[in-house]
Write a structure and sequence with these properties.
Strand content: under 5%
Helix content: over 70%
Structural class: mainly alpha
Largest sheet: none
Number of domains: 1
Radius of gyration: 22 Å
Length: 473
């Protein structure tokens, strides 16, 4: 059931950008999208720094405490207060950054909204609800937030100068979610200010905080460095391409978030066999989903960019091709890092991996963006994620000793490669939106039919039969 709700959450996060971004990009253009994308990336950087790694660490600790309400209240209060106090310093740091770098000198609306955006992050306590496995609530709040975003976007944003209203809508959506999340938490915990043990969290949080800093660098620095080392239009083009990748990644990584509390509980109970079963299922899930996505996206890259962002973003199709492998790489990193290393208290290993990746990503961006602009940022991200995947696999393999399914890897890849001649034939008959829709539908049907024909055990047992059961077939 949790996976169902998390899948619905993922589908909502996929569908909404498909509705909102094409409208926003056509109204605001590359420069307007560039300004707002930069603002969101900059705030996200400081938000992650302000989170102190609690969104990852908190899931594990809440999962351990969820059966004892007193212990749960203590753990939650300790983590939330740590985050609140630290966020004060982060807001000061953010203000200093804006002042010394002279960012937003002529953008007062964006500047003040950015501060509200950072403040909202404190109330977005999804780590708590993930820890107690209340995915239904997370899905409902997310749906309300996204519905508000869609409604306000079409009502308020009408011209290029409305880019600040677009960012206003993003911030207000976060504020509503934060208020609802904090209010509902009173049902499960009592907020405490005394008799709390903060010290027990300092060491693991410090390690994860270092990890989060590094993750922040290589996940958000591409957009930020593009703004400072290139032009706003390049930020807009790159943002359109990476937005498509991140939208699809929501579905690829949806299973991983659900499994973190379960894996943490099994490890706490010293049941490594169950952990191994869950991890191997996660790997199969990423493989079976990511390969058809990647091959399909490569084949319709130009058309999907134009449909998603508009003809003025056509140049972004080449960036999209560079970024496509991230679907597989980040899907694997999600498993090796969040599902194995963190639950097994391997924060130090994860910290080493991401710090190395962050330094590499910063260095590559610094030298490549001034020369190759958006393509330089895409290449830097791709190389960084590739190396991080190799390192994360090495350390997680030593920790758990799971099996990587090479045979399934090749099977799903080969089946996906058959899309090439199929899509080629479809392109002779259709073009534009009909080409994308027909190609996607035909390839998806043939792919899943092929999995049934070859009697793929993972697909039949974990995807095909559960769907038939739900439909009472």
């Amino acid at each position: 059931m949790n996976f169902t709700y998390n899948t619905l959450l993922g589908l909502t996060n996929i569908i909404v950008p498909i509705i909102t971004f094409p409208y926003a990009s056509r109204v605001l253009g590359p420069q307007g999208i560039g300004i707002t994308s930069f603002a969101i990336s900059l705030v996200t950087t400081f938000v992650i720094l302000g989170s102190l790694g609690i969104p990852i660490y908190g899931i594990r600790e809440i999962a351990k405490s969820k059966k004892d309400k007193t212990k749960l209240s203590n753990t939650f209060s300790e983590l939330l207060l740590i985050q609140v106090f630290w966020s004060v310093f982060i807001i000061i740091a953010f203000a200093s950054w804006l002042y010394f770098t002279k960012t937003y000198q002529n953008e007062d609306a964006i500047k003040y909204l950015s501060f509200i955006h950072i403040f909202c992050s404190i109330g977005l306590i999804n780590w708590f609800y993930q820890g107690i496995e209340k995915y239904k609530f997370i899905s409902i709040v997310n749906f309300i937030s996204k519905l508000l975003t869609i409604a306000l976007l079409f009502i308020l944003v009408k011209q290029k100068e409305d880019y600040w209203l677009y960012y206003f809508i993003v911030v207000m959506s976060s504020l509503v979610s934060a208020i609802i999340s904090i209010t509902y938490s009173f049902k499960f915990v009592k907020y405490k200010l005394v008799k709390l043990n903060f010290k027990r969290h300092y060491k693991p949080i410090l390690i994860l905080f270092s990890t989060q800093i590094a993750i922040t660098i290589y996940l958000n620095l591409d957009v930020i460095m593009l703004k400072y080392l290139s032009q706003l239009e390049q930020v807009g083009y790159y943002s359109a391409a990476i937005r498509i990748i991140k939208t699809l990644l929501i579905l690829v990584t949806s299973l991983g978030v659900v499994l973190i509390p379960k894996i943490s509980s099994y490890i706490y109970e010293k049941n490594n066999n169950e952990v191994r079963v869950l991890v191997e299922k996660s790997i199969n899930f990423v493989l079976i989903i990511s390969f058809p996505m990647m091959i399909g996206l490569c084949l319709v890259s130009k058309d999907i960019i134009i449909l998603f962002a508009g003809s003025q973003f056509g140049i972004a199709s080449s960036l999209l091709l560079w970024l496509v492998p991230l679907i597989f790489l980040i899907g694997m990193n999600n498993i090796f890092g969040l599902q194995i290393l963190v639950p097994f208290n391997g924060e130090k290993k994860l910290m080493f991996i991401v710090i190395f990746g962050a330094v590499l990503n910063f260095s590559l961006n610094f030298f490549l963006i001034p020369i190759y602009q958006g393509k330089g940022a895409a290449f830097s991200t791709l190389v960084t994620e590739g190396i991080i995947t190799v390192l994360a696999y090495y350390f997680s393999k030593k920790e758990l000793g799971f099996k990587f399914p090479i045979k399934k890897f090749l099977t799903y890849l080969i089946l996906s490669l058959f899309f090439i001649p199929i899509v080629g034939l479809i392109s002779l008959v259709f073009e534009g939106i009909f080409y994308v829709i027909v190609a996607t539908f035909v390839c998806a049907v043939l792919y899943f039919f092929a999995l049934i024909v070859i009697k793929d055990k993972f697909f039949i047992e974990n995807m095909y039969k559960p769907v038939l059961l739900k439909l009472n077939l």
